[in-house]
What we know:
This protein has 154 residues and is mainly α. The chain is 79% helix and 0% strand. The chain has helices at 2-31, 37-52, 56-59, 67-91, 97-103, 106-117, 125-141, 143-153. It is globular, with a radius of gyration of 19 Å. It starts with a helix and ends with a helix.
Amino acid sequence: MYFVILHQHFGYVLQQSIGFTYAAYLVCQSQNKQFDKFLILNFHIVISALILLPFFPAYSGPVPTEFKFYFFVEIIAIMYTIVPLLLNLFALTGIASSKVGMILNINPIIAFILASTVYGEPLNPIQICAYGLIFLAVIIFNAKEIFRLKTEKL
């Protein structure tokens, strides 16, 4: 029982650490004008892989042999991870880092919708409410710009 509670607590600490480091990353990258954005993104991906490497033996399974698996992993990695992160680095040159951080929350919402519609993942009400709240937070946080654009067009 104690191990389960400790494991859950570690999960919360890990989630908070990830959120803090990503916020620090956005703030640092908003000030970065010297280095190439793609080089910086590659550096961060390598650092992330090195941090995750010690966990590999505990969470690894049999190595997949189907081509289809690697094809889909490449699509997901490029289209839903690398491209959004690279675009966010470029967005930091013209938008505040707080806005980029909020807009980046759209990426998991898209992945959630794809998982349910394309891959047929079952959804429960808690997941739907959680992603709905994230989407609502993005809308509220950016409401000033969204509604300003609509009033300027009129």
